# Entry
Amino acid sequence: MAEIGPNTRLKVSPFYKSTLAEGVAGFSPYNRMLMPVSYGDLAAEYARLTKGVSQWDVAVERQVQLKGPDAVRLAQILSVRDLSGLTENKGKYVPMCDHRGTLINDPVVLQLDDDLIWYSIADKDILMWARCVAAERGLNVELSEPDVSPLAVQGPKAELVMASVFGDWVKDLKYFWFKQTELMGIPLVVARSGYSKQGGFELYLMDGTRGDELWNIVKEAGKPWDIGPGSPNPVERIESGLLSFGGDTDDQTNPFEVRLGHYVDLDLDDDVIGIAALRRIASEGVRRHQLGIVLEGPEPKEGHWVWYDILSDGRKVGDMTNGVWSSRMGRTIGFALVSRELSPGAEVVVAKDGEEVAAKLCELPFY
Amino acid sequence: MAEIGPNTRLKVSPFYKSTLAEGVAGFSPYNRMLMPVSYGDLAAEYARLTKGVSQWDVAVERQVQLKGPDAVRLAQILSVRDLSGLTENKGKYVPMCDHRGTLINDPVVLQLDDDLIWYSIADKDILMWARCVAAERGLNVELSEPDVSPLAVQGPKAELVMASVFGDWVKDLKYFWFKQTELMGIPLVVARSGYSKQGGFELYLMDGTRGDELWNIVKEAGKPWDIGPGSPNPVERIESGLLSFGGDTDDQTNPFEVRLGHYVDLDLDDDVIGIAALRRIASEGVRRHQLGIVLEGPEPKEGHWVWYDILSDGRKVGDMTNGVWSSRMGRTIGFALVSRELSPGAEVVVAKDGEEVAAKLCELPFY
# Structure
């Protein structure tokens, strides 16, 4: 393993000093920032997330801000899901595609005002994309990356912590709903959201100078519930069937292939980028689909497997896009992006550095 | 320092195993790949580059391939430099801008055939950008990232090594000129190019399965000249005044601000992205310009400084975008992106974590 640290292309988050103080042990670059991915004890982090509560520096979930008279129009052009129901305080998860119908992001979209929208994005330069579309179509909208950095509070006890901080109104937030508020004068958007299936909230910090302050408020408030640091957890998210854009998708993946078809509205206008291509794909049928995969054998030495070939009768039929050891299942499990010929139950082989590992496809999620 | 390694968002290069064998000590993410940035002895790497010859894994310089009847037309639309003289075997360095006239890349453009062009890019998702433009304008061109990975051979003795491998014809290549060829059956483009001012070549490997083979051929051929591993060198490139796109530029930087004005052709057609904005900027005059900066004081503990405020009379007047200790000069030197009010010779202050360091602006390059 080689080292990584902040550099001119890797900005640090407003919570950076706090994560160092918590003993962050590994980073991954994401949206040109350093994302904590480990605090050195992944089993403890998994336990906190699935049984208790954990707090995550997910400042890397950057916002692409659309502001101006054409903000709402541009938002729809960029999204293959119908946004006509979008209102203030109710966010939506939306697939974004390019003109080929290929997935380029899966943000949460938040409308903050009549003319103000945030795309809370996964890892890809959507600011540049949105600027290109707006300029090419002559839209009157200003695009920027505002000073907004989410801190996630995740786990079954997250609601208790958040209610102790903000009051009981947080319990009434439905999934992806949000509220603009303040905490000790720190401007925030509080949303029920987060990259796990354990439930939780995201606090969108709107003043980058106050990250450590916010981190410590949450840390103090969480003490009765043994809160601790964590990060998007590869084991939990695979067990839960949660897609990783860019991790489980490639340069050819459309939403139908990765279980996002129910977020695609094919009757949207043709000016929505990708919708015409998706109509064609829907009528022709997809070539691949995403399933679960369970591997034979004991816990491997490496914790995390990525993009290994899946073979059937000696022929490549797809990729295991991500795989992890699940202690809960006593097996290596993962996501398979495989030919439509293969169904759950099919026995396949994963080819890993010359070795072949027996495996079986299954439905998602695992839990 | 935390660790980094290959993951689902960080692909490895075809030379990865070779760089591990050479003892690579640090990586930086760049174009979604791991770029070696150190082999543990930066002084030796600097000496090889400036006095001998070194070989670099710069597979991160990805190619964006434009293929089809509208490839040449799209290439011009994407470039604010006149490409009308572009021919096979003669590459050009070109600034790319967005519609605001803001720099989004500074690739080398190579025309390989009448309908086939590569943009050899710096760190930014230009494939997505080019796809957006092509689709919005209805151009008949296929965009892709081909299996092409450059290996750089840099330093005053690079020509001797390359001539020993390929023959004397390499000596006739002028800067950015190139030739498609083969070496032991490995398909290559050989160009006089590279991210240093020490002279050298880039071998564009066109078969990713043969990276270690190519690495070792160059390593063997270079032995008489004590070749060794290296990487784009922050000290050499700052001494030489070489711009780092994304390192010395921000989300507002136009080509005129960073000494690229002579690569901008303002009389290009309006359909060239950014040219209308650049005409406006040129007539109004830029607010900032890029100068060198020399700091007082001894060698700092950290080797590399990025984006510190530059103050004049207690007021922020710009940023020191990158700074390094130059043993040759016995000073910390860097690039300053400062208000046009300030000229070479101006005495300023660099504000670094609460400390203030006296400094003086100067012309570029340092050597």
User: Anything to note?
Assistant: The mean pLDDT of chain B is 95. The longest strand of chain B covers residues 315-326. Chain B has two domains: 16-61+148-237, 238-362.
